[in-house]
Amino acid sequence: MMTACAPLLAFLALAAGVAWAAPRAATAEYLLLPGHGRYKISANYKTWEAAKRTCEAEDAHLAVLDSEEEMDAVINMLVRCGIEYTRFDFWTGYYRQDETGQWTTVIGRWPVGGTGTGYTGWMSGYPNGVRDAACSRLLLTINARGLINGDCTNVGPFICEKNQ
């Protein structure tokens, strides 16, 4: 796990203003979460669209959390990588379509107001209807865990997902 978490730990050290050196063997690899898929946490700050393109260039997509079990597995992965008791949010694969105003996913599932698994993981009060907040983020704090919506032009870290 240390190897896969190395880029994220370096990012956290930078954000906290402390020195940290990655192990020489550190790579940005995908972690298998059995029964769900393979995931990579990117600490590179990008807009939602740039994050989407980055995942697609790796034959992946922004993470779409289809169930509470998958959400918990990804959150546990983040916690094992040292993301806990802080405030971080990561771009994920839900977005609001301009033409319909409905939320969908980068893989074509309709999580809100349509067909699909029926699970979205939105935190209470989200999506909040703010016009410019049309992209999803996975929020992780000491008191809250779940999806929120945010301005797609803001930059932030993101999670890519590959099928098993």
Automatic annotation (TrEMBL):
UniProt key word Signal? yes
Where does the signal sequence lie?
1-21
Record bears the keyword Metal-binding: no
> Which positions fall inside the C-type lectin domain?
39-161
| InterPro entries according to UniProt | C-type_lectin-like, C-type_lectin-like/link_sf, C-type_lectin/snaclec_domain, CTDL_fold
Q: Which CDD domains match?
A: CLECT
- Kindly state which keywords UniProt assigns to this record, in alphabetical order: Signal
Q: Where are the transmembrane segments?
A: none
- Know the name of this protein? C-type lectin domain-containing protein
Q: What is the lineage of its organism?
A: Eukaryota, Metazoa, Ecdysozoa, Arthropoda, Hexapoda
